[in-house]
Amino acid sequence: MNWLWSNLDLVGELMLTHLALSVPAIILSFVISVPIGWIAHRYRWSRGVLLSLCGLLYAIPSLALLIALPIVTGQRTTSPINLVIALTLYGIAVIVRTAADAFDAVEPDVRQSATAIGYSAAGRFWGVELPLAGPVLLSGLRVVIVSTVSLATIGAVIGVQSLGSLFTDGLQRGIQAEIITGIVATMVLAIGLDWASVAIGRMLMPWWRPSAAERRRTLDRVERVDAA
Amino acid sequence: MNLLLDGIAWILDPANWTGVGSIPERIAQHLAISATVLVISALIALPIGTLVGHTGRGKELVVTVSGGLRALPTLGLLTLLALWLGIGLQAPIIALVVLALPPLLAGAYSGLESVDRRTVDAARAMGMREGQIIGKVEVPLGMPIIVGGIRSATLQIIATATLAAYIADDGLGRFIFAGLKTRDYAEMLGGSILVILLALAIDGLFAIIQRLVVPAGVRATRTRELRSRPPRPRAVVGRPITEGNPE
């Protein structure tokens, strides 16, 4: 505990750095995957290709990706941008499948009714399909939030500052409290962002009342992402 | 592009293929660690997951525990265990087992849960004992999903076994950390490429296994229609004529 009190500002600073790494990656991966998921839903031929690509991406070990990515991006291995790109790629790999499922789950009758009352294709997407797919999209986003925040710590072993630095530093100097602080801080951050995403979801989708059953389904989805 | 060529040149360099810490030796170590961890964690997780999936009891608990484990940062667990247990293989193996549990549990119970309850009831009505229902009905039918869980656990293990080299002098990750120390990007990249290839090869292998474990009876009745229902019922529903070619 003493270690924590005397290093409170270091932990705070690293939490902010960690947020600066993970939040852009989470937002980027969400924004990029929703259209890809919609394409996978809309054009059947693309579904297999897109989802397999995402599966392959997900199979690539993170540390190896961090080191191999600079070949493509031209960034240095140790640059935060490199880490953000890697985290974004993993996020995309997770959300695209969920996004495709989310759009699939919109009732065809509803879609046709929207067309019948005069929605254009774009208007239908923004006004009908996206809001109805919202809850499932959110469940995918929550999976990504937790995994991204936890994954961002890996960067520490190759020298990208984050809460993971507490692990590498704690190991080198043999300070157990430092590592435990890092673990707790990472989990607090993940849970906090998860709550924030649910709060934003409630705000944007006021009709959405996650019942106990639905919450359980969200958890199921998490498991299915795992098993897929 | 030169960087990539350097990395490939490093892999192809004959000097890296012989002696202590050669590429084949590291790959063998990597696979040995991964296999050990997979066996240990499967022995723990698969029976529990099967029981939970069969009885439906304790699901909430399993979901909560595996959700919590997911938020646990790998590197944190690894370094903490290394501090407690010292440098060596013990810490990485325990950390990897802990990380492999959630996908294995999830695969096992969602595999059993995916089986149609009516099928299970029918099996029970025919007089099968609970053990027989699990072994002859639920496990075979849920096998593709169970293997899916094993697949993602294995990928997770292989990926994290790379990190194990941070603690122990073992596995392909050694190249990455050695290269990092000497600022030898070719070695780091070569090691990374090897890890990526290994992971993709194992993933491909599991993709094939996942197809093979579908019971013959299920495969025979399964239509090739994998997409969702058409938006409206079609007026004419027929099977395509294959002109005597069995499909």
Can you tell me about this structure?
The complex is a heterodimer of chains A (228) and B (247). Chain A is mainly alpha-helical and 228 residues long. Chain A has a single domain (4-227), classed as MetI-like (MetI-like fold, Orthogonal Bundle). In chain A, 82% of the residues lie in helices and 0% in strands. Chain A has 10 helices and no strands. Chain A is elongated. The relative contact order of chain A is 0.14. Helix content of chain B is 73%, strand content 0%. The longest helix of chain B has 35 residues, at 130-164. Chain B is elongated and about 65 Å long. Chain B has 247 residues and is an all-alpha fold. The mean pLDDT of chain B is 80. Chain B has 10 helices and no strands. Chain B has helices at residues 2-12, 23-55, 59-71, 74-85, 90-113, 117-125, 130-164, 173-181, 185-212, 216-221. Chain B has one domain (20-216): MetI-like fold (Orthogonal Bundle), CATH 1.10.3720. The two termini of chain B are 46 Å apart. Chains A and B meet through α3, α4, α6, α7 and α8 of A and α1, α3, α4, α5 and α7 of B.
